[in-house]
Design brief:
The chain has 6 domains: about 120 residues, Cadherins (Immunoglobulin-like, Sandwich), CATH 2.60.40.60; about 100 residues, Cadherins (Immunoglobulin-like); about 100 residues, Cadherins (Immunoglobulin-like, Sandwich), CATH 2.60.40.60; about 100 residues, Cadherins (Immunoglobulin-like, Sandwich); about 100 residues, Cadherins (Immunoglobulin-like); about 220 residues, Immunoglobulin-like, CATH 2.60.40.60. About 5% of the residues lie in helices and about 40% in strands. The protein is mainly beta. The chain contains 8 helices and 53 strands. The structure holds 2-acetamido-2-deoxy-beta-D-glucopyranose (4 copies). The site of one 2-acetamido-2-deoxy-beta-D-glucopyranose has 3 residues, from loops. Pfam families: Cadherin, Cadherin_2, Cadherin_C_2. This is Protocadherin beta 7. Keywords: Calcium, Cell adhesion, Glycoprotein, Membrane, Repeat, Signal, Transmembrane, Transmembrane helix. It is found in: Membrane.
C-alpha cells in the first residue's frame, strides 16, 4: 500500500523533477525525466541544453544527438533550442510489462568535442487496464456435507497495470453461504478464496451462481467479473419417507387375485441411487407373504391369494422403503377384509324319523341345525317349509329347529310328504339352501273294505249247469298291507227265521260267486243274499253288500192254447152265417206261454183247412176271419188247424183245431160251451173265467177270459158296473199276452155280420197263490224289479 501511494505522488510531480534533475547535471548520476504513459506525441519533456548548461547553438555546433537502446526513437531533440520532445505515445505495459519502475535509459552524445551525458526516462503507469478473468465461468463442486469455514481457492484475475493500478481486491455477490477472502501470495499477487459460511443443503439449493468481482487499486478503480457456478453435490443425508405412515384399506373378500390393494409411496430427497427407493415387506409373516405381493419399484400392493373374511378379517403389514444408500423408512398398511355373502346357509340334520304312523298326534319328524359362515346380515337366516303341508317348524336355541306334524296324518290321503326346508340368509344377494326330505306315513287299519257297489244285480240263464260262475263281488280297502287284504263271505239272512237257501257259494279270496244248482226261471225269477268283506287288520274291519240274482228266462215252455179249449171232450164249434161278408171274424185263438219276453211272443198261422182259401188266421192276434164271401157251394163243416209258435230260440209251438159250421140266414146265435159251462151260463151274459195258473215257486200266469156273447142282445158288449171301464185295450202287434195280467175279453156279434172277441182293459190280479203273495209282500223291491 505504501508503494502504491508513493507511485501516485511521483506521477503528479513529473515536471518538477525535471528541474530537480537538471540541477544534478554535474553529478555522475544520469539525468532523470518522468513521463506518464499515453502522453501525446510531441509533448515537451525538458530543455536539455539548459539542463546541461550549454550555450545557445552549442548543441548543433558540437554535433549532438540522442542515442538509446530502444528500437524506437521515442525522443526528439531540437538542436537549435535544446528542447527534448516526446516522439512517441508510450505504452508502459508494452515497454516494461509488469516491471516497475519502467525506465528507458538514453544518452546525449556530443561529437565535437566528444562528450556523453547519461539520462533516463521514467514511464509512469496509468490505470488503463481492467482486471480480467481468463474464464468468465468458474465451476465449483461442493459436497453438501462440507463444514463451514472450508475455503475454496478461485482463479485469479489479471490486470496489466502495475502498482496502485494493479489488482487490489476481490468481492463476491451477496449471498448467505459464502464470503471471499483475499489472499496475498507475498509477491504482490492477490488471489480470491471462497469461504463457506454455513452448511449447504442440496435438497434445498442444489446449485448457486455467484459473481466474483476483481477490483484494481486505480482511481477510479476498474473491475472485472467472473461467474462462479457452485454445484452442491448430494450426499445420502435423507432417508426415504412415506407419504402416509398408516394406510387403511378395505378389501371385499371376493376381490380377485391380482387386485391392487393400495399404492404406498415414499419420498427420498436425495438424488441418484441415494434417492432410489425399493419397497419390501418388513418382517412379514408367512401368511402375509402368501397373500400379498409388493412391487418393489412402484409400491403397488397386490393380492396374491384369495381373501376369506371367515378366516382372517384384518392384516397388518409393515412396508419398508429403502434407498440406494441403505437408509429406510417404514409405513403400516392395515387391510380390513369386508364380508361378502359368499357362504350359503347350511343345514345339518340331527335326526329324522320316517315313517310316521297315521292318526298320531303331534309328532317330531326331524331335528336339525342351520348355520351360515358369513357375518352380519350375510349370516342371519330364516328357515321355512312349504305352506301347504301339515307340518310346523319350531325354532329352538342355537339355531336348532324341530319339524313337527301339525295334526294327525291320513295315510289314505297322502302316503308320503316331500318336505323342502328352505334356509335363506339376509345378505345381498340372498343365498339359500334347500333340503328335501321324504317322509312316509305308515298305515293304521282305519278303513273297512268297501264294496264297489252297495248292491249287485247278476243275470243268468235258467237251467244253468251247477257250479257255474255267475258273477263277482269286489271290495277294496284303502289301507295298505294286511290292513287292506280282503276276505269275502256269504252272510246269513237278516231274518233268522228264513232258511239260508244254499243256492250260491263264494270264493273267499276273489269274491267270485258260483251257482250251486240249476235254476228254473219259472220257479224262481230272482233271489238275493248278503255278502261280507273283512280285512286282516287288527282289529279287523268289515262291510257288506246285497247281491240280487235275476234268473234269465230260457225258452223252455211251449205256447199253451187257452181258447178254444182242447180237452177234446166237447169240441168247440164256431157258427158262421153264410151271408157273412169277407173278413167276418169267426173266432180268435187265445194262447199263452209260460216263458217271458221274446220267448213268450206268440204268432199264429193256419196249418190246415178243409177248404183252403176260405179262412185266414191273423198272425199277430190269432183272429180267424173269412177270406171271401161265402156261397151256397161251400161245405157246412170246416175243420181248421192253427199253429201257435213262440219267438224263442229255438221256437216252441202248439196246434189247435177249430170247428166251423156255416149256418143259413140270421139264426139265433149259438154259443158252443164246454160241458161244464151250461150250468154257469146266464141268459144274456155268459162269462167264462179261465184261470190257468202255471204256478211255480216264483211265477204265476193267470188268465181269465170273459166271454160275453152279446150277439143276441144287439151285438154290444155290456160292461159290469164299476168293474169294466169298457174301452178297448189294444194289444195288437204281438198277439201275445203279458204275463200276470188279467184280460177281459168279450165276443160281440154286432149287426149280424160281425162278431168278435174284444180284449178289454187289464185287471189287477187278485188271484195269487199264497206263497207268491207272501214273497211279494216281504220284498217290495223284488216286486219292482221283476215288473209287477
Ligand atoms: C476489499 O473490498 C472489501 C469489500 O468491498 C473491503 O471491505 C476491503 O476493505 C477491501 N480491501 C482493501 C485492501 O481495499
Ligand atoms: C412394478 O411396477 C412397475 C411400474 O408400474 C412396472 O413397470 C413393473 O413391471 C412392476 N413389476 C412387477 C414385477 O410387476
Ligand atoms: C316326492 O318326490 C319324489 C321324487 O321326486 C316323487 O317321485 C314323488 O312323487 C314326490 N311325492 C309327492 C307326494 O310329491
Ligand atoms: C500509491 O498509493 C499509496 C497509498 O494511497 C501512496 O502512498 C503512494 O504514494 C502511491 N504511489 C504512487 C506512485 O502514486
Amino acid at each position: 500500500m505504501e508503494a502504491s501511494m508513493e507511485r501516485a505522488v511521483q506521477k503528479r510531480q513529473v515536471l518538477y523533477l525535471c528541474v530537480f534533475l537538471g540541477m544534478s547535471w554535474a553529478s555522475a548520476e544520469p539525468l532523470r525525466y518522468f513521463v506518464v504513459e499515453e502522453t501525446e506525441r510531441g509533448s515537451f519533456l525538458t530543455n536539455l541544453a539548459s539542463d546541461l548548461g550549454l550555450g545557445a547553438g552549442e548543441l548543433s555546433a558540437r554535433g549532438s544527438r540522442i542515442v538509446s537502446d530502444q528500437s524506437i526513437q521515442f525522443l526528439l531533440l531540437n538542436l537549435l533550442t535544446g528542447d527534448l520532445l516526446l516522439n512517441e505515445k508510450l505504452d508502459r505495459e508494452e515497454l516494461c510489462g509488469p516491471t516497475e519502475p519502467c525506465v528507458l535509459p538514453f544518452q546525449l552524445l556530443l561529437e565535437k568535442p566528444f562528450q556523453i551525458f547519461r539520462a533516463e526516462l521514467w514511464v509512469r503507469d496509468i490505470n488503463d487496464h481492467s482486471p480480467v478473468f481468463l474464464d468468465t465461468e468458474i465451476p465449483l463442486k461442493i459436497l453438501e456435507s462440507t463444514t463451514p469455514g472450508a475455503a475454496f481457492l478461485l482463479e485469479s484475475a489479471q490486470d496489466s497495470d502495475v502498482g496502485n493500478n494493479s489488482l487490489s481486491n476481490y468481492t463476491i455477490s451477496p449471498n448467505a453461504y459464502f464470503h471471499i477472502n483475499v489472499r496475498d501470495s507475498g509477491e504482490g499477487n492477490i488471489y480470491p478464496e471462497l469461504v463457506l459460511d454455513q452448511v449447504l443443503d442440496r435438497e434445498e439449493i442444489p446449485e448457486l451462481s455467484l459473481t466474483l468481482t476483481a477490483l484494481d487499486g486505480g482511481s477510479p478503480p476498474r473491475s472485472g467479473t467472473a461467474l462462479v457456478r457452485i454445484l452442491v453435490v448430494d450426499i445420502n443425508d435423507n432417508a426415504p419417507e412415506f407419504v402416509q405412515s398408516l394406510y387403511k384399506v378395505q378389501m371385499p373378500e371376493d376381490s380377485p387375485i391380482g387386485s391392487r390393494v393400495v399404492a404406498v409411496s415414499a419420498r427420498d430427497l436425495d438424488t441418484g441411487s441415494n434417492g432410489e427407493i425399493f419397497y419390501a415387506f418388513f418382517y412379514a409373516t408367512e401368511r402375509i407373504i402368501k397373500t400379498f405381493q409388493i412391487n418393489s419399484t412402484s409400491g403397488n400392493l397386490h393380492l396374491k391369494a384369495e381373501l376369506n373374511y371367515e378366516a382372517i378379517q384384518t392384516y397388518t403389514l409393515t412396508i419398508q422403503a429403502k434407498d440406494g444408500g441403505g437408509l429406510s423408512g417404514k409405513c403400516t398398511v392395515v387391510v380390513e377384509v369386508t364380508d361378502i355373502n359368499d357362504n350359503p346357509p347350511e343345514l345339518l340334520m340331527s335326526s329324522f324319523t320316517s315313517p310316521i304312523a297315521e292318526n298320531s298326534p303331534e309328532t317330531v319328524v326331524a331335528v336339525f341345525r342351520i348355520r351360515d359362515k358369513d357375518s352380519g346380515n350375510n349370516g342371519k337366516m330364516v328357515c321355512s317349509i312349504q305352506d301347504d303341508l301339515p307340518f310346523v317348524l319350531k325354532p329352538s336355541v342355537e339355531n336348532f329347529y324341530t319339524l313337527m306334524t301339525e295334526k294327525p296324518l291320513d295315510r289314505e290321503r297322502n302316503t308320503e310328504y316331500n318336505i323342502t326346508i328352505t334356509v335363506t340368509d339376509l345378505g345381498t344377494p340372498k343365498l339359500k339352501t334347500e333340503h328335501s326330505i321324504t317322509m312316509l306315513v305308515s298305515d293304521v287299519n282305519d278303513n273297512a273294505p268297501a264294496f264297489t257297489q252297495t248292491s249287485y244285480t247278476l243275470f243268468v240263464q235258467e237251467n244253468n249247469s251247477p257250479a257255474l260262475h255267475i258273477g263277482s263281488v269286489s271290495a277294496t280297502d284303502r289301507d295298505s298291507g294286511t290292513n287292506a287284504q280282503v276276505t269275502y263271505s256269504l252272510l246269513p239272512p237278516q231274518d233268522p227265521h228264513l232258511p239260508l237257501v244254499s243256492l250260491v257259494s263264494i270264493n273267499t279270496d276273489n269274491g267270485h260267486l258260483f251257482a250251486l244248482r240249476s235254476l228254473d226261471y219259472e220257479a224262481l225269477q230272482a233271489f238275493e243274499f248278503r255278502v261280507g268283506a273283512t280285512d286282516r287288520g287288527s282289529p279287523a274291519l268289515s262291510s257288506e253288500a246285497l247281491v240280487r240274482v235275476v234268473v234269465v228266462d230260457d225258452n223252455d215252455n211251449s205256447p199253451f192254447v187257452l181258447y178254444p179249449l182242447q180237452n177234446g171232450s166237447a169240441p168247440c164249434t164256431e157258427l158262421v152265417p153264410r151271408a157273412a161278408e169277407a173278413g167276418y171274424l169267426v173266432t180268435k185263438v187265445v194262447a199263452v206261454d209260460g216263458d217271458s219276453g221274446q220267448n213268450a211272443w206268440l204268432s199264429f198261422q193256419l196249418l190246415k183247412a178243409t177248404e183252403p182259401g176260405l179262412f185266414s188266421v191273423w198272425a199277430h192276434n190269432g183272429e180267424v176271419r173269412t177270406a171271401r164271401r161265402l156261397s151256397e157251394r161251400d161245405a157246412a163243416k170246416h175243420r181248421l188247424v192253427v199253429l201257435v209258435k213262440d219267438n224263442g230260440e229255438p221256437p216252441l209251438s202248439a196246434t189247435v183245431t177249430l170247428h166251423v159250421l156255416l149256418v143259413d140266414g140270421f139264426s139265433q146265435p149259438y154259443l158252443p160251451l164246454p160241458e161244464a159251462a151250461p150250468d154257469q151260463a146266464q141268459a144274456d151274459l155268459l162269462t167264462i173265467y179261465l184261470v190257468i195258473a202255471l204256478a211255480s215257486v216264483s211265477s204265476l200266469f193267470l188268465f181269465s177270459v170273459l166271454l160275453r156273447n152279446r150277439a143276441a142282445l144287439g151285438g154290444r158288449c155290456s160292461v159290469p158296473e164299476g168293474h169294466f171301464l169298457g174301452h178297448l185295450v189294444d194289444v195288437s202287434g204281438t198277439g201275445s199276452l203279458s204275463q200276470s195280467y188279467q184280460y177281459e175279453v168279450c165276443l160281440t156279434g154286432g149287426s149280424g155280420t160281425t162278431s168278435e172277441f174284444k180284449f178289454l182293459k187289464p185287471m189287477i190280479p187278485n188271484l195269487l197263490p199264497q206263497s207268491t203273495r207272501k214273497e211279494v209282500e216281504e220284498n217290495p223291491s223284488f216286486r219292482n224289479n221283476v215288473g209287477f
